Amino acid sequence: MIFQFLFLAVLLIFSALFSSTETAFTSLSLYQIQEMKKNKGRRGEMVNRLTKKPDALLTTLLIGNNLANIGATALSTSLTIEIFGSQFVGYMTGILTLFVLIFGEVTPKQIALARNEAICLMMAFPIHFMRNIFRPIIWIISGISSLFTRLFAGQVKKSFTLENLLQMVSLGENMGIVESYEKQMVKNVFRINDTPVKGITTYRTDVFCLDKESPIEDVLDEILEKDFSRIPVYQDNPEHIVGVVMIRDLLKGLAAGETGIRLKDKMKEPFFIPETKMVHDLFHQFKEEMLNMAIVLDEYGGLTGIVTKEDVIEEIFGELYDENEETASDKILTGDNDEWIIQGDTNFYDLHDHLGLDLEHDIKTLTISGYLTEKLGEIPRPGKEVELPEGRYIISRVNNNRIEEIRFKKSKQL
Fold first, then answer.
1. How far is it, in rounded angstroms, from Cα 377 to Cα 400?
2. Are 240 and 289 in contact (CB under 8 A)?
3. Does residue 332 have a pLDDT over 90?
4. Is 398 within 8 Å of 373 (Cβ atoms)?
5. pLDDT tens digits, one per residue of 127-163
């Protein structure tokens, strides 16, 4: 009799052990697995190997857990009949169920969530041994389970994606581990992989450039007023960029007493790139070739504009200003009557982050200005209203046929 009670206690301990081990393994993060593999020797390596085959691991644990629970149920029933009679079997079943629920399921799982690494390391070799013993049974159960899974759920392969990573960063922000600006930088780092250079280009109508035949003395005041470190120079017309001059070189020449110098005497070869080049590729090229400015060309070889290393860095860290620059206002501001004031060059990522808008657009369209122009099908004019599923747009400011500012009110359905 005493031996039977001891055996029942052992079965309940095994039930708790298998329950906690199941939760410990399923709650491990990729980071924890890699850290254990690197720092915990053979046990860490075994944990990594077990997690590589989650189906076999889970089946092994469930077999062990069910054998322990079924054995405990059968033994407790036998003891109840032997001691109290068959009329008390129902009472014993209720008591055992409550006992298993508290001490064999809930409590062990809560402990496992707090100490998952320690439990996984402790149980790695025993579970590996059990998996080898039950291999034929595991193979049969996994095969039947996989068959029904394919029939009812299809072959869905879950993997760790970029969205999962960004969700983890957002969760870190909610928990106070990650600052909001850090979360935005992480998003920006990955977004530049999908952002073409055209999206961060200073458009040709906004580019300050000078004629290569201009004497330095004639344009010096204009150069100093603009306060740029590099200036594109053109031949014949501003859309035919043939070089770049560095202000440092011009000032050195003037300081050395050189006279009659024209910009073409100091200009360097320009670096041309297509507007379809991705920002992250350009960033690596800037680093490798020690460049600071690129001339952006469209598919026909015409000038789109210019892009600088600072433009690329600002895509990650946000707008940067020196002591002589005016701080620009935010691209999306709160207006009156539940409206939003949006700058025309606002990209779709900002619209998603601030307003939750996922706008379907042509792949060549990069800003809200281009989006509305595409929807209008005509040159925009101030005061024009556009009613779209996501809400109502009012074009409030236009410059050189480009939308500079919009008022937007979200649809009540969103």
1. 17
2. no
3. no
4. no
5. 999 999 888 888 888 888 878 777 776 655 556 676 7
Amino acid identity of residue 160, one-letter, is F
CA distance 37 to 34: 5
Specify the long-range contacts of residues 385-390, CB closer than 8 Å, at least 24 apart. 389/413, 390/357, 390/359, 390/414
Nearest in space to 21 (alpha carbons), one of 143, 104, 136, 137: 104
User: Tell me, what amino acid is at 177?
Assistant: I
| Torsion angle (degrees, nearest 10) of CA 179, 182, 187, 191 | 160
CB neighbour burial string for 4-28, b if at least 16 within 10 angstroms, e if fewer: eeeebeebbebbbbbbbbbbbbbbb
Handedness of CA 300, 305, 307, 311 (dihedral sign): negative
Q: What are the chain's domains?
A: 2-153 (no CATH), 162-191 (no CATH), 197-317 (3.10.580.10), 332-410 (3.30.465.10)
Query: What is the pTM for the complete model shown?
Result: 0.58
Name the strands in the sheet holding 230-234, side by side, starting at the edge strand that comes first in the sequence. Answer: 210-211, 230-234, 241-246
Can you tell me the mean pLDDT for 347-359?
81
Strands of the sheet containing 272-274, edge to edge, are 202-203, 303-308, 293-297, 272-274
Residue 23 confidence class, pLDDT cut points 50, 70, 90 = very high
Give residue 269's pLDDT: 92
